[in-house]
Structures are given as structure tokens and as C-alpha cells.
Amino acid sequence: MKPVVLAGGSGSRLWPKSRAALPKQFLALTSEQTMLQETLQRLDGSSAANPIVICNDAHRFLVAEQLRQMGGDHGGIILEPVGRNTAPAIALAALHAMQTDDDPVLLVLAADHLIKDSAGFQAAVSKANELAMDGNLVTFGIVPDQAHTGYGYIKGGEAIGVGMKVDEFVEKPDLATAQQYVDSGNYFWNSGMFMFKASVYLAELKKHAPEMYSICEQAIASESKDLDFIRIDPEIFATCPDDSIDYAVMEKTALAAMVPLDAGWSDVGSWSSLWETADNKDEKGNVIVGDAILEGVNNSYINAEERLIAVVGLDDVVVVETKDAVMVANKNKVQDIKNVVNKLKAEQ
Ligand code: GDD
Ligand code: MG
Asked: Does the CB atom of residue 321 touch ligand 1 within 6 A?
């Protein structure tokens, strides 16, 4: 099976650490290794080999250097001249993989997730592999613990082999719908990782998003290799519609299946999720990275890069200090940090 690592996101809710020039997948947020490196490391000991990484052209040296530090072989770094979201990115990787391998099963991974139990993850991957070999588009379902509106929701159906069919896939429902799904007990969150034969994904994309399929096919026909980098024609790819695999394929296909995943998964989408998943909270529930003095502070996340942070008499706060910016937020409002990033972009 061939891993395809999606490393083209922007991670704006983790500002000011995550920047356009250095998005979260390239940062060491949960261990000494970067999120991209953790993603690759997690595959060690499984039958997955030679990952293809697909990322924005602007990040090519970051990716090349982080792969080099890991040692081992990889299957090349596909460079997107512009981001067109995950459906085209996966299509490029699938079309590229078909040229060198004979219709491999692809294990599509996000480059920025935390999974605490690697063995549990690998066990789910080998189950998913069986369903993928049988022609399914396989998702990994997480039992939800809140009505999060940033996730896809999967309704499990009839049992097939080691997993189940998907009766319904709904990407990012509104809050009331998400709450209904969670209350019903019949829905899982989509983890954002997928497994399928390259040919099955491409056939479904061709059926549900024909224009996107045809542009990706032309783009890969134009590919050229430069060291480890695989480049495509920017003018062709610029015309590609922008959409995620979730909307473009998973909501529409009749071939979706699911295996449950219970392996300490988190998509580290915000500072509060880093606080939630941290194993090193002190007795007051604070997570401290770097140099900080806290007085009467509870359940907070403090991250100091260059300077000492002092906080007095506050609960549930996030303070993140970097060389050129300090961000202070209510821990329950950290989703809104992306609005700050949008304001900054508008000022530029
Ligand atoms: N190469 C490439 N190109 N990668 C991309 C692009 C792109 O244009 N856009 C996003 N990515 C990468 C991101 O870096 C991330 O690793 C992954 O693809 C998913 O993209 P997100 O933008 O983070 O998606 P999301 O969080 O809104 O939603 C997805 O993940 C959720 C779980 O975390 C969906 O699959 C949801 O259904 C799912 O619940
Ligand atoms: Mg995400």
C-alpha cells in the first residue's frame, strides 16, 4: 500500500506559531518531531512504503528537508503551483502513482494529525486495506464526543467484512444537525484519512467531478521531475475547480465504507485541542511550554518561545508568544483566531 501525505493546508487557527510560510504540519507541536514527520513515523512497521507527499510549491524545501531528516525512501514530492484543496491533490497523487505502480491501494493521510496509539492505527489500516482491495472508498470513523461543526459525519450502515458500509456522509453540518447526529449515537466523525485503490478514486472523481478529473489528468500528463520534486504545468492546474474530497466525492459516492478508529486521534485543529490532548498538564490543569510563571491560573495553555510569560489570576486562557507576535485568547474562543489571520491578510 502506498501512503499519500496531504501537506498543503494553512493551519490558520494555530497562529501565531503557524504561518503562511510555516504552517502547522511543519511544526513540532506535539513532540520533538514535526507533525509531518510524526505522520511518516507512525507508518513504521506497517506494510506502507515510499510515501508520496503533496504540498504547495512554496514549501518544497521544508518538506524535502524534513523527509531527509527521517532517512528512508519516499515516492517523490508533488508540487502544487496553487492550492485547489484535497480532491485535486489526491487525484494528482493517484494519477502519478498509477504510472509507476499497478493500481496501488492508497492510504491518504493528513500531515497534521495526532494519533497517540500507533499500533491501534496500524491495526485499523490493515482492516481498511481489505475493504479497499474490494473496491470500497474507506474512511476511518471516530466516535464523536461533541457536536463539532468542522468535521464530516458518517452514518454507519450494514456490516461488510471487517467494517461497515456508509449510509450517509455529511461534510461540516450546521450545529443543530451535528448535535442531532451526535445524540442519535449512529454517526461517527470522519477522521480525514482515506484508503482506496487509485483507480476506484479516479473513477468516482470522473463520475462526480468530471471537469476536475480531466484537468488533473492533463496536469499529470504535463509532469516533469526535478530531483525529488514532481512539477506540473501551473497554467493547467490553475483552471482546476477548488474542492475537498469530502464534498466532491465522499458525499456523493455509493462506494463509501468505514472502519472505526479508536487510537487517540486528534486533528490538532486549535490551541484548545493541543491543551485537551496534552499528557503533561500540571496539578492545576495548565500546559506550559517554555518559560512561564503562573499565579492563580487554571486550565490554561501557555507557550513561550523567546520571552518569559507571566499570567496572574486567569482561568481558561491561551497565551502564545513568538518572536514577532503575542496572542492572548479565551480558551473557549480559539476557533476565532482565524479571523485575526484574515484581518492581518486584509491589511497586507
Ligand atoms: N496538498 C494539499 N493541497 N493538501 C491540502 C490542501 C491542498 O490544497 N488543502 C488541505 N490540505 C491538507 C491539510 O494540510 C490537511 O492535512 C488535510 O489536507 C485536510 O485538510 P483540512 O483543510 O485540514 O480539512 P478539514 O479539517 O477542514 O476537514 C477534513 O478533515 C476533518 C478531520 O480533521 C475533512 O476530511 C473532514 O471531513 C474531517 O472531519
Ligand atoms: Mg483539518
From this structure: no
